[in-house]
Amino acid sequence: MTKSDHTHLIKKWSHELGFQYCGIARAVRLDDDARRLEAWLNKGMQGTMQYMENHFDLRIDPSRLVPGARSVITLLMNYYPPVRQQPEAPRVAKYAYGKDYHEVIRSRLKELLAKMRAAIGEVDGRGFVDSAPVLERSWAVRSGLGFVGRNGNLLVKQAGSFFFIATLIVDIELEYDSPFSGDYCGTCRRCIDACPTDAIGEDKVVDGSKCISYFTIELKDLLIPDEMKGKFDNWLFGCDTCQDVCPWNRFSRPATELEFTPIPAILNFKTSDWEQLTEEGFKEIFRHSAIKRTRYTGIRRNLRFLEGE
């Protein structure tokens, strides 16, 4: 088979595995992105997320992750939920409504790589989903899937931003998609104006150390800084404000992936249910949820913070 045949098969398999979009770019060093990342880190916008400082060379050079890397395959999976939480309940970011996406997507990437090896032959590759040093949004743009909006999210024209991004780096040559060109935010600044903590700058730079998602998930301190009180807009885990106000998300369509079916507790829990939740109950209900990342102590801390304690 030719590399054209291989490319066609990979895109076909990706759709069969539940990914709505698949784009492919040539594996190269991301020198421009390296400079932007270095500037972001030098300003301390990573907060206490020290892992953002680690493995800098791996982030910008795919050949450091997969020796002989030739192609970077970027895959998008829709997670936009068909239903919402109770109106007055502590709010959970939509990506955490269903089963932990790390578990779901990691298994699909392994399956895709297995299909490639069975049909193409010896292929060296590694799949990544949000938990490794990969600049996945940059690769998504390079593979023609969308553009990065003012809120730092990947935006897909006519589809929005409620997508998980996965990356598969392989050592075989494929046909490459044209990079996405253009910026379709225009003069819109809804995300900037709506951000409760002023984390979004004018230049498409998001200060991670000010983001509600950072405070409710990444920050491991026992207390959230007092200066943030009254600014969380009832977000208990993560935050979707900048996505909810984005005009491109009027095109969002409910996800059909069964693994992302919302956990009943997330939809139905009121404040009192979160308050009465035991550690054993937390571990049982959220054992396959991304919410377990913040642990029971984190949820209790966040809840107390929302209640002004």
Automatic annotation (TrEMBL):
Gene3D superfamilies named in the record: 3.30.70.20
Protein name: Epoxyqueuosine reductase
Active site, UniProt feature: 130 (proton donor)
Keywords attached to this entry: 4Fe-4S, Cobalamin, Cobalt, Cytoplasm, Iron, Iron-sulfur, Metal-binding, Oxidoreductase, Queuosine biosynthesis, tRNA processing
GO cellular component, one term: cytoplasm
Names of the cofactor(s): [4Fe-4S] cluster; cob(II)alamin
Role noted for this protein: Catalyzes the conversion of epoxyqueuosine (oQ) to queuosine (Q), which is a hypermodified base found in the wobble positions of tRNA(Asp), tRNA(Asn), tRNA(His) and tRNA(Tyr).
GO terms, molecular function: 4 iron, 4 sulfur cluster binding; cobalamin binding; epoxyqueuosine reductase activity; metal ion binding
Cofactor note: Binds 2 [4Fe-4S] clusters per monomer.
Record organism: Puia dinghuensis
Known catalytic reactions: epoxyqueuosine(34) in tRNA + AH2 = queuosine(34) in tRNA + A + H2O
Assembly behavior: Monomer.
SUPFAM superfamilies linked: alpha-helical ferredoxin (SSF46548)
Residues holding [4Fe-4S] cluster 2: 195, 211, 239, 242
Gene Ontology biological process terms in this record: tRNA queuosine(34) biosynthetic process
